[in-house]
């Protein structure tokens, strides 16, 4: 497998950085209750235990860092967004925080007993470089674990969203070209990517996450207030196309409706782990 990278790395990095500076609070509001569901599986995959020195790359609001601290680990958490770091520092006072680039980790080789990265490698211009950096800072024999979204399909939320855009809008819009957002989103692809970067004993686990939402446009609202690339894609649609996409999403939410008027949308994740 050749891991895809951005054809416009500087523009894409700025787009992602500016986006996360803008939506950091919205991500915490909408996505934390979803991505929390993969936290324990990610820590287990990295074999995190009491006393270990752990790096959390692309920490976001700090969910992995907080759970690792609760296990008694000594945690350093890194993100490239000042606003994201401010939120994470408030959420996890027991961790050390650094602002930095996942593609150029500011740590020496063999510095950590475990490294985790929650939904982060899909947001960098060069995911292969980020994976290589994760491996570089690991102690020999130590484990790393990364999480990504499962590929869109008719039974999950991303399938609903991107299916509506494909049917009623335009997927080819003038945004900085990033790597394929879903290039690691099945077990075989994630396995090959980690093996390509010399991780051994790779294991992939599917985590069945559910996004609990209050209304039929909850998926769209969450994306518009708490995402970067998908939000940019929606913002680039014409007004008429956006209305049609919204109606398609609303109609497509009916299978996920519950008796209390809320919605439970499947949003599975993959957790990939490997040993240095």
Short key terms for the protein model shown above:
276 residues; alpha/beta; Rossmann fold; seven-stranded mixed sheet; 9 strands
Quickly give the CATH architecture of the domain at 9-152 and 176-212 and 269-275. 3-Layer(aba) Sandwich
Which quaternary structure do these chains form?
Answer: single chain
Number of strands: 9
* Gyration radius, in Å: 18 Å
The span between the termini is 19 Å
Strand percentage lies at: 15-25%
Give the overall average pLDDT.
97
CATH C-level name of the domain at 9-152 and 176-212 and 269-275 = Alpha Beta
Largest sheet: 7 strands, mixed
- The SS-based structural class is alpha/beta
Can you characterise this structure?
This protein is of the alpha/beta class. The protein has a domain at 9-152 and 176-212 and 269-275: Vaccinia Virus protein VP39 (Rossmann fold, 3-Layer(aba) Sandwich). The chain contains ten helices and nine strands. The strands form two sheets. A seven-stranded mixed sheet has the order 3-2-1-4-5-9-6, with helices on both faces. The two termini are 19 Å apart. The mean pLDDT is 97.
């Amino acid at each position: 497998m050749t891991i895809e990278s951005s054809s416009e790395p500087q523009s894409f990095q700025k787009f992602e950085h500016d986006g996360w500076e803008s939506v950091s609070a919205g991500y915490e509001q909408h996505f934390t209750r979803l991505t929390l569901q993969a936290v324990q599986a990610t820590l287990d995959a990295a074999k995190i235990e009491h006393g270990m020195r752990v790096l959390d790359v692309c920490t976001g609001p700090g969910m992995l860092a907080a759970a690792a601290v609760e296990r008694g680990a000594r945690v350093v958490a890194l993100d490239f967004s000042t606003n994201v770091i401010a939120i994470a520092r408030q959420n996890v006072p027991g961790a050390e925080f650094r602002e930095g680039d996942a593609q150029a980790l500011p740590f020496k080789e063999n510095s950590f007993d475990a490294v985790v990265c929650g939904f982060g490698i899909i947001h960098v211009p060069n995911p292969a470089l980020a994976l290589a950096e994760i491996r570089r800072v690991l102690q020999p024999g130590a484990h790393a674990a990364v999480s990504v979204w499962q590929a869109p399909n008719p039974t999950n939320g991303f399938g609903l969203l991107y299916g509506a855009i494909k049917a009623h809008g335009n997927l080819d819009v003038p945004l900085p070209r990033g790597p394929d957002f879903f290039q690691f989103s099945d077990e075989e692809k994630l396995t090959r990517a980690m093996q390509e970067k010399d991780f051994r004993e790779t294991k992939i686990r599917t985590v069945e996450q559910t996004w609990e939402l209050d209304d039929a446009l909850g998926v769209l609202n969450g994306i518009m207030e708490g995402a970067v690339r998908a939000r940019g894609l929606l913002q680039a649609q014409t007004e008429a196309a956006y209305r049609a996409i919204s109606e398609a999403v609303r109609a497509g939410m009916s299978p996920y409706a519950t008796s209390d008027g809320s919605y439970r949308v499947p949003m599975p994740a993959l957790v990939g782990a490997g040993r240095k």
